[in-house]
Amino acid sequence: MDSVMKSIRIFAILIVCVVSSVAFGARQPNIVLLFSDDAGYADFGFNGSHHFKTPRLDQLAASGVKLNQFYMSAAVCGPSRAGLLTGMYQQRFGFEENNVPGYMSHSAATGDDMGLPVEIPTLGNHLQNLGYRTGIFGKWHQGNADRYHPTKRGFDEFVGFRGGARSYFDYDPADPKVAKSDLLEFGFGEYREPGTYMTDFLAEQACAFIERNRARPFFAYVAFNAVHTPMNPDPKDAALFPELEGKRRQMSQMTLSLDRAVGRIVDQLNKLGLADNTLIVFTNDNGGPTDASSASNWPLSGCKATHLEGGIRVPGIVVWPGKLAADAAYDKPLSSLDLLPTFVEAGGGDASAIQGLDGVDMLPYLTGEKAGRPHQTLYWKKENRGTIRDGDWKMMRFPDRPAELYHIENDPSEQHNLATKNPRLVRELYKKLFAWECTLERPLFMMKRLYEEKAAVRFDQYRQQYP
C-alpha cells in the first residue's frame, strides 16, 4: 500500500510539474503600445531623417518589422484614437470630428460631453477580459466627462490628462486659465503636477507599471503628448541641434526626449527579463502638422487634417522577439484599426467573435503565414470630404472641386492626378465610397457653422420686426 501511495504522489507531482510548465510556456505576451502625437512621417532616423536623432527608435525598428504603409483611420487625433481603441471606423458611431470643447456646436454633444460612446467596448476592455492588467499613461482625448474616464473604459490604471494637449511643464492648478482636463490626473480625480518634464515623467510611470505587473500579463498604452504643441523642449537639450532653427530645432529636441523615453521603457523590459515575451508597437496618431510645429512628412504630400498621404500615413514598428523577424519591413497597407484584433489574438482571444471590427490580425501577414493584402479597401471621411484606397488606387472627393485620383504604389507623393484619364474608375470608386458612407452614423460633433448662426439671428430679427 505504501508503494502504491508513493507512486500516486510521484504521479501527482509530475502532473503538477507538467501543468506548471505548460502554463509558464504559454504565458500571454505583455503588450506595449508606444504612441507619439503629431510627429512628422520623416522625422525619425528609421524613416530617413538625417537631422533628427532617434537612436533608440532606430534600434527598435531594427529589432522588428517596419511598416512602410501604416495608416491611421483619421487625420486628427481624437477620431484616430477612437478608431484605434475600438477597432472600428470611428464614423460608424459618429466620432468623426475632433472632440475639442468650444470648437464645435450644433452637435448631439458639446463641451465635456464630447466623447467615445460608453456602450462601445475598448481595447482595454477586451484585454481585461483576457486577464490583462491595463494601464494608460498620457493623453486620453476621448471625452472629459467622468463617464468617459479611462478607468471606466477598460483601463485599470491611468496617469495622464483627459484633454487633447497640455504643457510639458507644471501648471498652477489655481490658474483660472488652465482647464481641469489639462491637469495631470492620477487614477480618478486625484490631481497633481509631475514636477518634472512630462515626456520623462510618462516613461517613468510606464516603467513603474511594468515593474508592478511583471508577474502577470499587462497592457501598457503609453500615449505621449510629444511632440504635439506647445513647443516645449527640455531645457537640458537647449544647446542641441544648432544646425536647425526655430520650430524645427525645438521639435528635434522634443523628438529626442521622446526617443529617450521609449528607450527607457525598452530598457525596463530588458532589465526585468520581459522583453522576449513582449509585443511592442510604436506609431503616431496622424500626420505631422507642417505649420504649428514644422513637422516633415517627406516624401509624402499633405499634413495633419488632410487625407493626402502626409495626413494619414504614419510611422509604424512592430516587435515581438521569436515571433517576428528582425530588421524586416512590410510594404502592404495596414491600419490602426488592426491593432485591436492583433492584440486580442496575441493575448489568446478570438477577434472574430467581436462584432463590428473593421481591422484584421496583422501578425499572420507579418510572419508570411498569410499572403495577399490585409485590406483591399480602406476609407476615410470627415464631413463631406471622403477618401477611398482600393488596391493601389486612391480617390479623394471634395465638396468644392473635382475628385482626384492617384496610383499610390507608383506615386506615393501624389504628384500626378489621373482622374481625367480614368473617369470610369473614378465613378466606380465614388460609388463604393458612397455605399460605405451610407452605413455610417451622423457625426456626433459638427464643425461650427457661423453662417447658420448669422442666418438664425437675422431670421429672429425679421420676425421681431414683422411679427
From TrEMBL:
State whether keyword Coiled coil applies: no
MF terms in GO: arylsulfatase activity; metal ion binding
Which Pfam families does this entry report, sorted A to Z? Sulfatase
Q: Which UniProt keywords apply?
A: Calcium, Hydrolase, Metal-binding
Task: List each copy of the Sulfatase N-terminal domain by range.
Answer: 29-347
Broadest EC class assigned to this enzyme: hydrolase
EC number, UniProt record: 3.1.6.1
* InterPro entries xref list: Alkaline_phosphatase_core_sf, Sulfatase, Sulfatase_CS, Sulfatase_N
Similarity section = Belongs to the sulfatase family.
Per its record, how is this protein called by name?
Arylsulfatase
